[in-house]
Structure formats: C-alpha cells, structure tokens
Amino acid sequence: MANDDQDAMADDWAAAMAEQAEVDDAMSQAVSFDELKDESPRGITASPELEVILDIPVSISMEVGRTSITIRNLLQLNQGSVIELDRLAGEPLDVLVNGTLIAHGEVVVVNEKFGIRMTDVISPSERIKKLR
After folding, report:
1. 54, 46 Cβ separation under 8 angstroms
2. Prediction pTM value
3. Which of 46, 54, 84 is nearest to 68 (CA)?
4. How far apart, in Å, are the Cα atoms of 86 and each of 67, 82, 91?
5. What one-character DSSP code corresponds to residue 39?
6. How many whole angstroms from its chain centre is CA 41?
7. pLDDT at position 74, please?
8. Cβ atoms < 10 Å from Cβ of 115
9. 108: β partners
10. Alpha helix segments (H runs only) across the chain
11. Tens digit of each residue's pLDDT (9 = 90 or more) over 42-99
12. H/E element holding 103?
C-alpha cells in the first residue's frame, strides 16, 4: 500500500516536472520588453507620423474579474474577506490598455515574477469598433 502511494506521488511529480519543462521551453522563446523597445510593432517600418506616438507610455492592466457590492458591504471588508467575482476559475484574464480590452491571456510565472501569456489578441479593427 505504501509503495502504491509512493508510486502515485512519483507519477504526480513526473507530470508536474514535464509540465514545468514545457513552460520553461515556451518562456525561453519569449521576447522581453527590453528586446522590443527599439523595434517597430510587428516589425513594420513606422511612418514619420506614427513614429511620433510610439514612445507615448500607456497603462496596461490585467483584470481577473469584476463584481458590484454595496457600500455597507465594502465597509465591512477586512483582512481575510473573500469577494466573489463574475468569472469562473481557469477563465482567461482580460488584458486592458488604458481601460480598453485588447486581449485575453493566462497567468505565467517567469523568474519568480508574474507574467501573462496572450492567448487571444483582439484585432485592431475590432478595438476601433469598441471605441465608437
């Protein structure tokens, strides 16, 4: 019985290590922001008009989910309180630039820091439609 438990645990560890190796391989192919900062988006040569705006900083944020609560409940929150969100566990996060949805992604860990892997990027034409 103890050997069965040890074998099961060894199998779990082997599966976890294989999954981590896949993540490590994917991250080794990832490009850092420092590598991209001197290049035009998607390798396209920027026109002089576009070049003017390429260095303007924007805020990028990831949203896990949302909810609405009353002020009464807000004032009752303290350490250890749990707020239920409108999203299911495992659903992709929203990637927002200046509050506008541009993509969906999943959380990854890179060098002990959180990151996000884009799983679905919204096309520029769709983003423009949402602004109207």
Report:
1. yes
2. 0.55
3. 84
4. 6, 13, 11
5. S
6. 19
7. 93
8. 14
9. 115
10. 2-28, 33-36, 48-51, 71-75, 124-131
11. 555 667 777 888 888 989 999 988 999 999 999 999 999 999 999 888 889 999 988 8
12. strand 100-110
Structure tokens at 80: 């250890």
Q: Which residue type does 120 have?
A: D
Q: Give the whole-angstrom CA distance, residue 97 versus residue 109.
A: 21
What is the rounded radius of gyration, in angstroms, for the C-alpha atoms of the chain?
21
- Do 91 and 105 form a contact (C-beta atoms < 8 A)? no
| DSSP string across 44-97 | PPPPHHHHTTTT----EEEE-------HHHHHT--TT-----SS-TTPPEEEEE
In a 3-state reduction of DSSP, which class is residue 55? Answer: coil
Question: How many Cβ atoms sit within 10 Å of the Cβ of residue 95?
Answer: 21
Q: Which tokens hold the place of 128? A: 């423009």
**The tokens of 27 are what?**
């991250």
Q: Which two tokens stand for residue 46?
A: 């920027």
The strand pair at 60-63 and 93-97 is best described as: antiparallel
The token pair that represents 75 in the structure block: 């004032």
